[in-house]
Amino acid sequence: MIKNLKNDFLILLRNNVFYFLIFILIYFLPKINELIRIHFIQSNINQLDILSQITWLQATLEILQAFLIAPLFYLLEQKNENALKTFYFVSFFSLLFVCIGWGGGIWVIAKIVNYDINSHYLFLYFQWLNGCLEFLVLFFITLFLIKENIKMLIFICFLKFIIAFLIDFILLKCRTFGVYSVNTSSIFSNLVLIVSSIYYCVQTKIFIYKSLIKNYKIYCMYIKKQFFSKEHMYPAIEQLLDNTSYIVVILTGLNLIHKNSEYFTAMAYFWGIMLALILSFGNIIQKIIAGKDKISFKNKLIFVFLTNNIFVFLFITSYFYIDIIANLVGLNLNNQISNIIKSLYLAYIIFHLSYSIKCIFYALGLFKFTFLISIMVNTLIYLPYYFSQNNIKNINTIINIFSNGIYFNCIISLMLFMFLISYKKQMQIIKMLQLWIKF
């Protein structure tokens, strides 16, 4: 048994370590661009305030991303959905979301967070377009990971970084563009990646092309079916609850106390280091759990558990080197920003654990579990704070609200995870009894 576990562990490590490193680059390299942007504009508080609005806009886009991208591992790997049909589905809704956002959706969200966008609405409009293009890039990243196409993943990783870096470097120095160059570089790099990926998929027969005009009824039926499917609706509603709470309680509170710039700068640093690892490992977890191979579910879980311990150790160790790391990346941390980062450290170590469990649920198609977690966290933690917003006097209160939600999320996730393990064991016993009875 131990020998089998060791062999399975080595197979999983060998098959996934390079993909993990690539995903670190995919998530980390854009954060380098983000830090460069902050470096160029952090002397201008007005431009930093504009850039910080990406936070609430991104929170909104994450809801739409959950609807389109979250179920892809389960659909493309477990259910063997047609890749071209899925691409049409993602493309259709990406275009629809652009139209909704530009048609008044952004204004509505801005009103919710009590923010006046009249002075820089063009920045937010094009940032919204970039976010919707990002959905298509994420679709291809997920598809190439499932197909284990390491060359295309490397191509996407470096091409996106190089294009965005070059355009940022040129335009950020130009006062005419300033912060608005952020949109230009991201939109252009995403368009290049989308066109390149479509061409590659057609050439390699990943997309088996059928006329869209002649088969429009088939594609329309598929889009309608997927729109109302539990695989798409549960993650979307779950993310809607989570991010609505985040926008209304956290970001509105930050705007009220005028601390959105400090919070954004802290998160840019924090996400750049930690979230790259968390999201990268989350993708690998889904690839491992959803993968159809001979390795047992139990051994896969043991592998995930052991590698999780390594990440937790790295996160705890990095806490003591915050200022050193900040100096290495060229980020100036004042006391306020440094305190925000340190206050959130434990919360995001816990977030890493709960997110790993969430990825396991996603890979197994257990979207009801994550939906239930979201309902409980938002009802019992964030909703009471929403009705007591007058008590939000400083940023420490907001950090405590956010942290409490993450802690409670992890507790509920662990309880449901233990239920899943218990259920799996019971099913194994039932199968053994059935075989014994037949024998």
Automatic annotation (TrEMBL):
<keyword id="KW-0472">Membrane</keyword>
<keyword id="KW-1133">Transmembrane helix</keyword>
<feature type="transmembrane region" description="Helical">
    <location>
        <begin position="301"/>
        <end position="322"/>
    </location>
</feature>
<feature type="transmembrane region" description="Helical">
    <location>
        <begin position="337"/>
        <end position="355"/>
    </location>
</feature>
<keyword id="KW-0812">Transmembrane</keyword>
<feature type="transmembrane region" description="Helical">
    <location>
        <begin position="362"/>
        <end position="385"/>
    </location>
</feature>
<feature type="transmembrane region" description="Helical">
    <location>
        <begin position="153"/>
        <end position="172"/>
    </location>
</feature>
<feature type="transmembrane region" description="Helical">
    <location>
        <begin position="87"/>
        <end position="110"/>
    </location>
</feature>
<feature type="transmembrane region" description="Helical">
    <location>
        <begin position="178"/>
        <end position="202"/>
    </location>
</feature>
<feature type="transmembrane region" description="Helical">
    <location>
        <begin position="269"/>
        <end position="289"/>
    </location>
</feature>
<feature type="transmembrane region" description="Helical">
    <location>
        <begin position="50"/>
        <end position="75"/>
    </location>
</feature>
<protein>
    <submittedName>
        <fullName>Uncharacterized protein</fullName>
    </submittedName>
</protein>
<feature type="transmembrane region" description="Helical">
    <location>
        <begin position="405"/>
        <end position="423"/>
    </location>
</feature>
<feature type="transmembrane region" description="Helical">
    <location>
        <begin position="122"/>
        <end position="146"/>
    </location>
</feature>
<feature type="transmembrane region" description="Helical">
    <location>
        <begin position="12"/>
        <end position="30"/>
    </location>
</feature>
